Amino acid sequence: xxRDVDARAAAGKPETFTAGGVAVLDRKQEPRVMIELAGVxxxxxxxxxxxVALSHINLKVKAxxxxxxxxxxxxGKSTLLNxxxxxxxxxxxxxxxxxxxxxxxxxxxxxxxxxxxxGFIFQTFxxxxxxxxxxxxxxxxxxxxxxxxxRRRMARAALERVGLSARMQHFPSQLSGGQQQRVAVAxxxxxxxxxxxxxxxxxxxxxxxxxxxxxxxxxxxxxxxxTIVMVTHDQRLAESTSHIVRLFDGRxxx
Length: 254
Known about the structure:
The protein is built from eight helices and 13 strands. It is of the alpha/beta class. It folds into two domains: about 1-30, no CATH class; about 65-90 and about 100-250, P-loop containing nucleotide triphosphate hydrolases (Rossmann fold), CATH 3.40.50. A six-stranded mixed beta sheet has the order 9-10-11-6-12-13. It has a four-stranded antiparallel beta sheet with strand order 5-4-7-8, covered by helices on one side. A hairpin with a 2-residue loop joins strand 7 (about 90-95) and strand 8 (about 100). Helix 4 packs across helix 5, helix 4 runs parallel beside helix 6 and helix 5 (about 150-160) packs across helix 6. It starts with a strand and ends with a strand.
């Protein structure tokens, strides 16, 4: 068996071997699976009613992919994102993030995994009004027990990354909507998570500011290899991602 090092390898794609004239992929070169859901269900129950939010969801997202989730209101998009983000536990099925099987961990361990693996961007910015921009971005690092000097250095680097190095001492009320969302992106990436979950990140922005946020996320995906899952109602934005997952009544239809 001889190695056939060709343009696939040069492009960072799986290299091939030849055996008896047959090309064989080198599986060791394939990207690892960052998010895996198998048969996931989510059911909300009360004494009188049972609501199926997710039904038999199967999903694999490889490292470095940027996918979008679409569907009408009430189709389960945000519920799916919450399950992936360890904010909600599935009623059935299996969830794994970067090889970590999720299921038996307690709240403290789940919180640690969220802090280490995942960054969140929401439609509403969720910035703390009484804290300046730099302090807002530092918040996720407080839970890691890092020294103050290291937190400041990482927060400044994140803000420089999103183009807000001149706004570090400003308060949220002094920023435009697009700038506030950039702060939210900086907060999401300050701990260098492998996974970024974005729930309608452009929903409260005009088209120009929305495009700026999308450009920023594509840059993070392209240059840092961040795996991104985005919920959106905007077909145009969804088509700019590598794959679209479509939900309808809690079921995966594409």
